[in-house]
Batch of 2 targets.
Target 1
Amino acid sequence: MVTEAPFVAVDGVGRSFGEGPTRVVALAEVSVELRGGEFSVIVGASGSGKSTLLNLVGGMDRPSTGSIRVGETEIAALTDRELTRYRRERVGFVFQFYNLIQNLTARENVALAASLVMPGREADDVAGDLLERVGLGHRLDRFPRQLSGGEMQRVAIARALAKRPALLLCDEPSGALDSTTGTQVLAQLQETARTTDTAVVVVTHDRELGAAADRLIRLHDGRVVENRRNDRPATIGGKAGAG
Ligand SMILES: Nc1ncnc2c1ncn2[C@@H]1O[C@H](COP(=O)(O)OP(=O)(O)OP(=O)(O)O)[C@@H](O)[C@H]1O
Ligand SMILES: [Mg+2]
């Protein structure tokens, strides 16, 4: 599914930290577009600005210069309160280290997130469905410590999807996993982009993921040095050129 208008339009965005001689320019003049239903992959060396860009799009930080439009909303112009609401209602995050609540089961972790946007009883059902969808229907009542790394990350994906986010932002989601398990997690994310209107964005060090991306964005020293659409993306964990 690819919508016509860009869903997220990052335009001339800069982000610097500090002042004077210690000033660090993390991003400079970055312009990219992300679309619903697309699987976008951001690559680049350590320190190139990948997480900074993801945090800006996710409303966890504000740009020093430039504009970030999400749908009709200029998020750089939102008040703190409005930005909190944006993060809570429209953005799902998946991080390297899962960040699950240890004393809640898989289902409870997901239901808690779902309950932000729907009544509690409905949230329990939605949590079960989502965990089923990420292949964890048989792990609903397990606590995080009773799950493998890949299973925990799939719970984190289900949790991020629970609020039906417009944007799913993933910062090295397979970074802590062995390659087989990491591939399963990335396949799940690609599948999400293919089957929903969510714009899925993955930051990765995995060079091979570029071939599977609908859009590949490469950063170098805070600038976009490559940005291309791939009309025949490989299916992760499957055959090439499908979709
Ligand atoms: N809050 C901050 N204060 C000061 N400098 C920062 C801050 N956040 C990021 N930086 C700097 O901005 C640059 C880009 O950092 P960023 O975390 O975006 O890189 P990255 O591409 O995600 O790297 P990695 O692959 O190691 O995660 C780095 O030089 C970093 O030190
Ligand atoms: Mg990073």
Target 2
Amino acid sequence: MAQVSHQEHGKKVRDMFGRIAGLYDFLNHFLSAGQDIYWRYRQVKLVRPGKKGLVLDLAAGTLDVSVELLRQYPDVKVLAMDFTHQMLACGKNKKLEGKRAERSESIAAVQADGRGLPLPDNCLDGATISFGIRNILPREDCYKEVLRTLKPGARFCILEFGSGSKKIWKGVYNFYLNKVLPLLGKVVSGDSGAYSYLADTIRAFPDERALAEELREAGFGRVMFIPLLSGIVYIHVAEKAEE
Ligand SMILES: C[S@@+](CC[C@H](N)C(=O)[O-])C[C@H]1O[C@@H](n2cnc3c(N)ncnc32)[C@H](O)[C@@H]1O
């Protein structure tokens, strides 16, 4: 029964991102007032994949993190995986723009589900997921797959909103999240569901300590977290323990 509802959830999420893919980048930058660029920069700084490593960017969407990985670590290879092909397709055009074009072959975009990665054990020097883990159910399946495919000592860096159940900036952020953002999202994207879904999933998401505990329970070794913008967003770093 749970399995069926997780499948249905996955289909709903894929359909939704398929609908908004063309507007996703604009809305991202607009609704976060450009902060998302800095957040991804900070996340990628923490990956430390080594000079010529292989890095998975899971739920890669339109490839912003993949491109940032290559910018900070020019010699790595990036596997950009996402189960919504429209999102990857929008990102493919982006990676061919400007100076990054020379290195575009270092990003391989692959349509895949984060709950069953088409990768062998212990092959990755690092992994990222940015604003993706909140959408994946059950999260444990994703943790298990990332842990299986990381090399010992490699890092999984998660960028995600903190739980929207906490009051931030005396409730101003919560008002923005629950009232302003769904309305703005609806007006700009024309999709009434997508941006109320965003607010709903942020509210339902575990807080930073609970998420860290989940990662430890999944089998990761050292886990730490860093708040950004008063805890609106967190980066969690989970290391696969050395053997
Ligand atoms: C909010 S977007 C984030 C995209 C990008 N990482 C970013 O930072 O802008 C969430 C992405 O997660 C993807 N996603 C959700 N569930 C997934 C799953 N089970 N497997 C792979 N991708 C998934 C969606 O298709 C979507 O592209």
